[in-house]
Amino acid sequence: MTSEEGFKVTSLKGKVTLITGASSGIGAGASVMFAKLGALLALNGRDLENLTKVAKQCTDLGAAEPLLVPGDLTNEDTVKNTVEQTIAHFGRLDVLINSAGILAMGSIETGDLAQYDKVMNVNVRSVYHLTQLCVPHLIKTKGSIVNVSSVNGQRSFPGVLAYCMSKSAIDQFTRCIALELASKQVRVNSVCPGVIITDVHRRAGLDEDQYAQVRFGVLQTPDTSLCKRSCFPDGVTESSVRCHVSVLAEHSKYKASP
């Protein structure tokens, strides 16, 4: 079976899926693709206006109305409420997609502890906390977890030190809990896309020249020779999100993160 054929037969019909970071970028792309495949969605994001637009894209495809659970996941009460509202609304949870994350520019010389704490709180601590609260529900459904990591967790990039560290942490988090939950038939995987052109770069403080370099794949270092291509959110839907789907497919039910 080709990868294209495998993707076509994949269905997430009726699978209750909680997606964080759903108001933009990869999270938004995943939301729309999962809606196409019949998932029942609970969408989290900090920007309620954008989250509402993503929800409308989903319903325009014929999907059920997503449950919106907006809020900042660095707030512990928001994390608890997100899980509680999802379970109260749907009665169960089949899939957790940890897509929320931020990028910050800074090296060992220019970064500070405030930046480090912010990146690690959003990209790692909130993921740990949300996953911890979702695991009991995922054990009941023998569900799946997909963590959105990055090539930055596997390759070294200058100028984004805290971000690279946070994504390395997510990769190790994924491997560890995959081992811990395997006996309970909960699959855990990470997806590690390359450069995806979303507003995350502008929010990180890139000026127009730097942003243009990222867009055209020229902001490179010797250690990133395999990453000389960037893509746009449509490319996310057709590549990165396919990875999300492939690790959730029934024919891959024994897969877990290495």
Automatic annotation (TrEMBL):
SUPFAM superfamilies: NAD(P)-binding Rossmann-fold domains (SSF51735). SMART domains: PKS_KR. Keywords: Oxidoreductase. GO terms for biological process: lipid metabolic process. It comes from the Eukaryota. The keyword Amino-acid biosynthesis does not apply. Residues 15-200 form the Ketoreductase domain. Pfam families: adh_short. InterPro entries: KR_dom, NAD(P)-bd_dom_sf, Sc_DH/Rdtase_CS, SDR_fam. One of its GO terms (molecular function) is oxidoreductase activity. The keyword Oxidoreductase applies. Belongs to the short-chain dehydrogenases/reductases (SDR) family. This is Ketoreductase domain-containing protein. The lineage of its organism: Eukaryota, Metazoa, Chordata, Craniata, Vertebrata.
